[in-house]
Sequence to fold (71 residues):
Amino acid sequence: RFNRVYAELVNPRNTRSVTDIALHWGFNHLGRFASNYRAVFGESPSDTVARVRGEPLLVSWLGGEPMLWRR
Fold:
């Protein structure tokens, strides 16, 4: 099921939200879904979508440590 979700998220014509896609594929606990997705693919579902859309990666410093995030 994770591969099906991933395929939809990386489709540049996708207009559905991460939540809609996860629920469609039977992931009813969204927090657990996001955590397991990150373990499988090495990034959050929203980061996958942002990467496909070409959104820039932002860096901020919190407590002396760099934190990477997307807008």
Q: What stands out?
A: Helices lie at 2-9, 18-24, 30-41, 45-53.
